[in-house]
From TrEMBL:
Residues 299-426 form the OmpA-like domain. The keyword Membrane applies. It comes from Thauera phenylacetica B4P. This is OmpA/MotB domain-containing protein. Keywords: Membrane. PANTHER family: LIPOPROTEIN YIAD-RELATED, STATOR ELEMENT OF FLAGELLAR MOTOR COMPLEX. InterPro entries: Bact_OuterMem_StrucFunc, eCIS_core_dom, OmpA-like, OmpA-like_sf.
Amino acid sequence: SAPTSGRALPPDQAARASAGLGVDGVRIHDDTHAARLAGSLGANAVTLGRDIYFAHGRYAPGTASGDRLLGHELAHVAQQQGEPRALQCDLMQSMPVTLGIFDIGMATQAAPPGLSGTITFHPDPDGPYSAEIGLIQAVNATDVAGLTTPASGAPVDWNNMVDANTGVRGTEAGRMEQMTQGTPGGAPAGWMIDNLPSATPRGDPGSPNYIEYFGIGGDNQYGWLRSPTDVGPASLFDYPSLSFDSDLDFETVAKGTDNQTIYGAIAWGFQIRGGAVQGEYARVEDRASPVFEEALERFRGYYVHEPVVLYFDTNQDIPLAGEEAKLADIPDYLDRYPDVTIGVQGNADVRGSEAGNWDLSQRRADAVAGLLALAGIDPGRIAYVSGFGETDMYSEHGTAPGARQPRDEGRLRANRRVVLEFSHSVSNHPIVMP
């Protein structure tokens, strides 16, 4: 069947829209065609000119949530008056992947133009164990207006961007070197891991996780999956915006900082045209894209490789089965960055005697140092091999400040680990890709 022409707003709503926003002639669409359009964009509703298309069940006049959604979409109608028609919508939807669910809650903002809100990943309780799941976000900002670049359509040149808080030009110029370069067969130019070079010197042992740069707390949280009944969501807050015509594209990936598992990815973005947001989209995948992986590898070159974690069973100094595979890419990374060294840190959980745990943590560190040697890594690249004794610092997520941690297996396991820390000795090293 063909799409319908929609129906008019109820008289009371039409009167409020005309008086409050100066909009008339609005048409409501809540049939299967409208639901398909909104669903394809990961939205509760989509506005195009004077037509509002609702996802299934989302047009609910007379209810608090329904009236809020309608009011927001009517604001989009007002924004589009006198402008070429373009899709506008909030990105508000739960989007499942195999290992969990992404909730995107990004609302369109007018001043400054952009999307504001949260992205949350809820791990599937039956998924793989992780003491810490982070959100790593890749971003590509395209200068459609050509204000920062010689020609329109190129990545934003951060050398020419003025910091809105300080008025200083080029404070985030470090992003330029982190960006993918558009090499043949690789990622398009302009993608980078979202971070703040102005606050993080090149070569620092930085984490690629978004919240390490934009603040931990509030809507910025690590997640975890310590057992089917001990699960916490990972989340971030963002408000991307630019003052000129531009395209903003993102890929937000949920990844275990300890198990290196990709739990899923959400690609999302929007355009800014004439000071208004349009063309919002969101979609999910089970895996990170090759574009994301290339941006992450450039991040590791500009800063340094993120820590690598190997887990152990109780009272054992040999890593759990499969953990050794986490070392596979390290020799290549060290070959590309001859100035990088590794620190090997052994840890134990809090059971047993303190002296026994010091000894166990050292034996674990020694065992992993031996595995690195077997992988062909020069002992001269190992800065230290040290046991740090017992700890519960790796199982703190989900514990209220000042509260005592439970001693369950999921938390204890988090601390039976060896951590490999990478460090640069040269701050101006070039980025060398695999």
